[in-house]
Design a protein that fits this description.
Chains A, B: This is NADP-dependent oxidoreductase. Two copies of one chain form a homodimer. By secondary structure, chain A is an alpha/beta fold. Chain A is built from ten helices and 15 strands.
Chain lengths: 346, 346
């Protein structure tokens, strides 16, 4: 296939300030270079929507290099190689990579080989492609690493998950159940809580929006205390959970999605309990565990085919919907993993 | 010696509210029971003043059972056995124990044997007794456990200590130096900083009271980032240190002395950095490590005799000064470990 001469690219118009205003990104046509020796042409099939997208749209420097105004938006994608001038990559290969949000991307095959975040994907024929950005994607690996490597989960442990109906939370819930833990979820709204109870068969779900005393509600549902708190949310919810932790408990600091892009950050008042309750609070980024992904992925594909992991993606169709998908993510309107699916098999 | 019929006892008059008002305790004469079979009479020689004393005077339940209004104040003491009706304890023995603040205490020898916090002390003849509540006391063991067991200190590590001129901080500073680390201290006031530089030979000291940009000041002094933060203080200082932590750094949550007894707790805003910087924040209480104290103490007595640990106690003479000693502790007016020394060898 000849290289298209232009790509549609989502470009950063301005950073978000106190929440998204829906115009942070604009879709532009930009010229696509000819393939030089060693290059590949990727046709984007899926954009994975993650909390890190919001982080990159924030004016604060956090991890990886900051994006500038006018830069293309960055994100995890799955693409198919449409043309290749690199010996390691062939037309029809699939690639999982950190790329720009665009319909076509030209990049160096060596860059794909050398980048820890990029690898060749061999999707299982019985598994839909979008599962590899959902259940079998970064959020699944993150949940696995957070629960097993950081939380040292074991059978019978009392595990509480915040944002339990969100992308990483829904994976943490399933992986924790698979480990034989007693699993409880925090989520906003009755519908999400029903999902947790009916579909994921959790041991308890608390609608944090329906209570004015979240701490008391957690103590009622988990009277023996939380042993592992898998926290995706931070802020006020973390502050309410801290006094419900068991002595020696672990807080897996997976993220603070409630605080990204917020001007004034919420101040955590109950942190002295880390000392008196002998808690361990530990952060991690999946970036540091990418060498373990092949092993994790193999194990998780088996679970998937055995029906132990549910593919609970919310697919938004069409590249032009990426900004509105981001707004859904920012307001927590999604149940499960959000992804933008770009149709058009060639 | 016949049992005295009365003891002077510090009794809780009221809890502290927003800082000490200096009348939380009152000194009362209370009857002292006759020694029954199995009892010992302890003459108190030293009261150790610790952050936990302030914690116990707070209305919040934290660890160990709460003290009630009218109860005797609790604290670590060193006493001498004056009379014994227990086969394991003899007149002249020394005991390190969690007891009430009083000149004489009658208690069961079995209780001393069974209580993890109490043990027989064999003070080295060349080491002054008060060293065993200071350099060789709980604060020393805490600093040791915090740096070695929690912080996994090693040679060359960049270690920052808050409250570095305080009881535990001054020990952490010395033990970190002994481990070959690069050691920096935060303290309030020029005098304390001079002590850290001149006497303890730290690699840097920052007077947090003399700067309006603590974060910037730490970044200037430790441009490569803090690898281990030994935090005794919590609150605003912890919030300023968080953005100066290296990726993968460890926060040893030794205490939050700035927050004890305060009505409104300071809210930590920079906690999302725990995730993005992959930090580990871990609390500990020396209570959980008491079985290791004999080993730690043996090692530390050797260091003491070799001059590697300085006995930097601030001794207040006389039981009747205990409340004012507590006020010094609460306002951070001490340099080094505070203890009340009760004279009168018999």
């Amino acid at each position: 296939m000849p290289t298209p001469q232009q790509a549609q690219v989502w470009v950063i118009d301005h950073y978000l300030e106190d929440g998204l205003d829906g115009s942070e990104l604009r879709l532009e046509r930009r010229p696509l270079p000819e393939l030089s020796e060693g290059d590949v042409l990727i046709k984007t099939r899926l954009l994975s929507l993650d909390a890190s997208n919001l982080l990159w749209l924030s004016p604060k420097k956090d991890y990886l290099e900051q994006l500038q105004i006018g830069d293309p938006m960055r994100g995890q994608i799955i693409g198919r190689i449409e043309a290749s001038r690199h010996p390691d990559w062939a037309e029809g290969d699939h690639v999982f990579s950190l790329q720009t949000w665009a319909d076509y991307v030209v990049c160096s095959g060596d860059a794909l080989n050398n980048d820890a975040i990029s690898f060749k994907l061999s999707p299982h024929p019985e598994i839909p492609l979008d599962a590899y950005v959902g259940t079998l994607g970064v959020t699944g690996w993150s949940a696995y690493v957070g629960l097993h490597h950081i939380g040292k989960i074991g059978s019978g442990k009392r595990v509480l998950i915040s944002g339990a109906a969100g992308a990483t939370g829904i994976m943490a819930a399933q992986i924790a159940k698979a480990a034989g833990a007693k699993v409880y979820g925090l989520a906003g709204g009755e519908k999400k809580c029903q999902l947790l109870m009916d579909k994921l068969k959790l041991d308890g779900a608390i609608d944090y929006k329906a209570t004015t005393d979240l701490k008391g509600e957690i103590e009622r549902v988990i009277p023996d205390g939380v042993e592992i708190f898998f926290d995706n949310v931070g802020g006020e919810i973390l502050d309410a959970v801290l006094p419900t932790m068991s002595i020696g408990g672990c807080i897996v600091a997976s993220g603070s999605v409630s605080q990204y892009g917020k001007g004034e950050q919420y101040g955590i008042k109950n942190l002295p309990l880390v000392t008196t309750r002998r808690l361990r609070m530990e952060g991690f980024l999946i970036l540091d565990y990418l060498d373990q992904v092949p092993t994790i992925l193999q194990e998780m594909e088996t679970w998937f085919l055995e029906g132990k992991l549910i593919n609970q993606n919310q697919l938004i169709h069409g590249l032009e919907k990426a900004q509105s998908a981001l707004s859904i993510l920012a307001t927590g309107g999604n149940t499960g993993k959000l992804a933008v699916y770009i149709d058009g098999d060639s």
